[in-house]
Amino acid sequence: MASQKSSNTPVYGNYHGYYNKRPSAQDPRLALLPRQLFRGRRVLDVGCNEGWVTCEIAQRLGAKRVVGVDIDDSLVRAAWKHRRSVWSQQGPAGVVPEGRSADDTPSNGSSRKRRRLSHSDDDDHEATLEVVPEYFPASCEHMFGPLPIPAAASQEKAGEAFPHNVTFRAADWVNTDIPDDNEGYDVVFAFSISKWIHLNCGDEGIVKFFERVHGVLSPGGTFVLEPQEWETYAKAKRTDPKLKEHAKNLKLRPDDFPRILKDIGFGPAQHLGAVGEGGFRRPVDLYTKVS
After folding, report:
1. What is the pTM of this model?
2. SS3 letters across the chain
C-alpha cells in the first residue's frame, strides 16, 4: 500500500482530531519511559498521526533526531502544522519559568514568573534549559499567526534542536522504506497501531512490521509497543468490509506478540504499566533488540 489520502473512514486508525480525545500537552505514555532513552538518540514514531508525540519527544526529551511517519498524507500535513504551532509557543532561548529546572515540572503550578539564565548557570544544563515549551499562550498564535521556522544555525549541534530535529513522512512504512531508515534508529515507537496493521495486512503483515522494526534498530535499540487488546478488534473491523473479511483469517493474537518478537531477535517484554482512561487505557511494553 502506498501512502493514502484521507477518507471519512479511518480504516488505518488514521483518526483526525485523535488527540482531542486524550491528554495531549504531555502524553502520559511517555512518562512511563526513562528520559535517558531519548537523550541524543534517533527516534522513529510509526503511525505518528498529527505529530503530537513526535514533537514532544523532539522538543522536551532531548532526542537528536525524530522522524514521524504516517500512511495518511493529510495527517502528515497536520503534523508539520503542529510542529510550527509548538515552535510558536516555545520560549526565547535562555528563559525558564521561576522555580523550574530543565528536567522538572514547575514547583509551583500557579507561578508564571520567568527568569533569564545568566552565564554562570550550570553548563551541563545550558542547552536543555534554553528549551521552554508552552512559554507563550496558544492565544498568541491565534491572534498574530504562527512564527516562521528559522533557518538552522551553522553550529554542528543546531540541527539536533527543536524544531530542526523533527521531520515527517507520508508512507506505508510496513511495506515502504523511507530515506531516514538508512541511518537506522535507536528507538522505534508503535503507539495504538498494531491492531490496524494486523487487520489491514493480516498475520503476515504484523510479523513483517515487527521484522522491519528489528531491521532498522541499532544493536541494543528499543522498541516501544502499545498493543491493542484482541477485544477491540471487533469494533474496528466493522468500520470496513475489507477489515471484516481479513479478521476471519487471523490466527495470531496480541498475546502472541511477545513470543513473535522473541523469535525475531528481541529480549523479553518489559511491562511498564498502563495509562489512560476508558478505551485508551492500554499497556506500554518495551523490547530490546538483542540479536
Report:
1. 0.84
2. CCCECCCCCCCCCCCCCHHHCCCCCCCCCHHHCCHHHCCCCEEEEECCCCCHHHHHHHHHCCCCEEEEEECEHHHHHHHHHHHHHHHHHCCCCCEEECCCCCCCCCCCCCCCCEEECCCCCCHHHHHHHCCCCCCCCHHHHHHHCCCCCCCCCCCCCHHHCCCCCEEEEECCCCCCCCHHHHHCEEEEEEECCHHHHHHHHHHHHHHHHHHHHHHHEEEEEEEEEECCCHHHHHHHHCCCHHHHHHHCCCCCCHHHHHHHHHHHCECCCEEEEEECCHHHCEEEEEEEECC
